[in-house]
Amino acid sequence: MNNDNVSSRLEKSMAAMDALLHRSVNPDMHRRLFRVFRREACVYFMEGVVSSDFLQHYLLSPLMKRSMEETAEYLPQLLAESVPLIEAVEAERYADAVREMMIGKAVVFVQSMKCAVCFDVRMFVRRGISPPLTESVVNGPHQGFNESIRDNITMIRRILPTPDLVGEMITVGDRYPTALSILYLKGVADEGSLERIRGRLQCIKADHVMSIGMLEQLLEDSPWSLMPQCCLTERPDRAASFLLEGQIVLALDGSPQILCMPVSILHLLHTPDDSSMRWQYGSFLRLIRLIGAASTILLPALFVAAVTFHPELLPVTLLTAILESQAAVPLSIPMEMLLMLLMFSLIGEAGIRVPGVAGSSLGTVSGLILGQAAVEAKLVHPLLIIVVAVASLGSYAVPDYGLGLACRILQLLFLGAASVFGLYGVVLLLGVGLIRLCAVRSLGSPYAAPLSPVRLHNPDTLMRFPVWMQTVRTWLASPEAMRRAMGSDRRKR
To answer: N or C: which end of the chain has fewer CB within 10 A?
Structure first.
């Protein structure tokens, strides 16, 4: 019945729609009978997603006023001309009519009309625009996306008011589709990347795509890779910066975040306010983040390797203090480090899940109390607590949440290598990890570019140089856009 064409008999259309909408058990699926052009008619709409005022004053009232008129003209066109609403779409199949109704439209059937006419009377209950929750900045706008795809697209268009900003609307999900917008700058985004992402979206086999995170897992190049291959953001200004670089942005209805592809590891280490600050400040903060990420991954492993396998690397005074305190501790240093890292990870996760301000307070207080209690109970020695605390702080300095989790998992892998093979295991695993990092792809683009392989790029990678020096588009843009940027730069010089 889903693929049947709309019948010219109103009774048959009403029976088909009642069955598809399960009106006998769905009280929010409404049907209203009326007359128009001396014919019997009915309108279907869903409570909660339509505006009752729009439906009454701009759809039913104008049509009912023409109930006594008789016409032989093309009915769908005449209906659209009789109603002062912007959008009127014809649906020739019952499945199309149901799909339009589910997104908030009113569907009108008329006796002897072989299609349905869908009118836009949507009015969703949605959250207002508020500051981003996970990407707070010092300099820059303080507005974030919400769950409405139309609001999110509008916020991006306000930043980039150009017709070159294209938003292709499609749906994902076979049985229960969700609206998705593919946003890119015409002439700037690479056509090869666009074709790849369109192909991957068409190949998605899922009943329903619940969230943008689920969409990310369906689109990524290497599902077994530990590193995130897409970038999630809830900031319109950051989404606009991705578009200007030639990247592609995906907005999913119902998600307060958007997905950007392709990306590199550097995109995950940058923050939105890097470009809003003077280049010296932005470069310094990036250096701090790099140190934080390196401390998270390597510091616990290097401490265990040095104390257990390579004590000659430590000063005599420090080594003596460690060994004296370790003599009263029943556990080995690798086991102490593992337990404390897991404890701090547990505290961090609990702090996130506790609502409101109490979450951050819980994390701080729990860390202090448990750390002090562990030292006094002689389960760990104080220097190990300092190492674990620095490593945990480093993970919080990583701006991307997914990358921060990857750093914590890598931390445990490096700890295992250091516990078994010492410093040699750390160096070997680091080499294998860097080789693997260079092999990862994001939508077909090298994940470690422009460092490996070397690509033409703005001086905005690990460090950030002045804005007036950034005159070249990224390697992710189309070749024509890069040639235009380089030609403009030569003319300025």
So the answer is: C
